[in-house]
């Protein structure tokens, strides 16, 4: 066994016994890269990535193009690194056990995982029946850091397809803060009016930023009292 192989095996053994507790960010990233770069010094690549982006979370939030521009990374490694936050988000979503959304707190808990690692604005539509049971949750669009182009017609089509009678909208503020912008109020009012024309109620509009989440309508709103 070469010195290179021996180092990798020691790191694998350490992880198998203790997880990542004894690893700093560089070594955690180095270890992760073992599984996509079999024959190179992944410690150097890990340093390059952290030097370029500044933190582990920023590495995982970077685009494939941004990652590919780092020395030693390449497109395959960039795609692999982008897979990590996407799988993490899917994992968190799969742990959700809520089949009924009764209030703002439920809605916030439901939506938080959908925006993990998101660098740009995204918007989701949660479709409910008249008993507040979840029918489906669909991504409506993605935008720049400051803007999501909401297609009201697409929301109406989703409502018709799933025969929903209640809707909850959610989007994120990647730049931080959950204070609604003027555009947030405008888009909420526009969607509320459009849905009302079909006898469908917009129950809430949730804004998520990191671990924070809040309602445009009202904090701690009980949906059961208004349906």
Give your account of this protein's structure.
There is one protein chain. With 227 residues, this protein is an alpha+beta fold. The protein has 2 domains: 3-92, DNA polymerase, domain 1, CATH 1.10.150; 97-225, Cytidine Deaminase, domain 2 (3-Layer(aba) Sandwich), CATH 3.40.140. It is 45% helix and 16% strand. It is built from 9 helices and 5 strands. The protein has helices at residues 3-18, 25-33, 42-53, 56-61, 64-68, 74-94, 104-111, 152-162, 182-196; strands at 122-128, 134-142, 166-172, 201-209, 212-215. Strand 1 (122-128) and strand 2 (134-142) form a beta hairpin. The mean pLDDT is 88.
Secondary-structure blueprint:
Layout: H1 3-18, H2 25-33, H3 42-53, H4 56-61, H5 64-68, H6 74-94, H7 104-111, E1 122-128, E2 134-142, H8 152-162, E3 166-172, H9 182-196, E4 201-209, E5 212-215
Parallel strand pairs: 3-4
Antiparallel strand pairs: 1-2, 1-3, 4-5
Domain MPN: 100-222
Family: Belongs to the UPF0758 family.
Keywords: DNA damage, DNA repair, Hydrolase, Metal-binding, Metalloprotease, Protease, Zinc
């Amino acid at each position: 066994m070469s010195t290179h192989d021996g180092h990798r095996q020691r790191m694998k053994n350490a992880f198998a016994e203790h997880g990542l507790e004894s690893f700093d960010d560089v070594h955690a990233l180095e270890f992760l890269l073992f599984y996509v770069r079999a024959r190179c010094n992944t410690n150097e690549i890990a340093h390059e990535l952290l030097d370029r982006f500044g933190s582990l979370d920023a590495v995982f939030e970077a685009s494939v193009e941004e990652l590919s521009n780092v020395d030693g990374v390449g497109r395959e490694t960039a795609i692999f690194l982008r897979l990590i936050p996407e799988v993490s988000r899917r994992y968190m979503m799969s742990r959700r056990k809520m089949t009924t959304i009764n209030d703002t707190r439920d809605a916030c808990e439901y939506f938080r995982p959908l925006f993990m690692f998101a660098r740009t604005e995204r918007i989701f539509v949660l479709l409910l029946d008249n008993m507040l049971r979840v029918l489906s949750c669909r991504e409506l669009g993605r935008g720049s850091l400051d803007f999501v182009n909401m297609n009201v017609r697409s929301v109406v089509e989703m409502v018709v397809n799933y025969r929903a009678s209640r809707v909850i909208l959610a989007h994120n503020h990647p730049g931080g803060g959950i204070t609604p912008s003027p555009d947030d109020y405008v888009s909420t009012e526009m969607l509320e009016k459009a849905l009302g024309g079909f006898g469908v109620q917009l129950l809430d509009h949730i804004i998520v930023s990191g671990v924070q989440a809040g309602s445009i309508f009202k904090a701690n709103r009980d949906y059961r009292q208004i349906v």
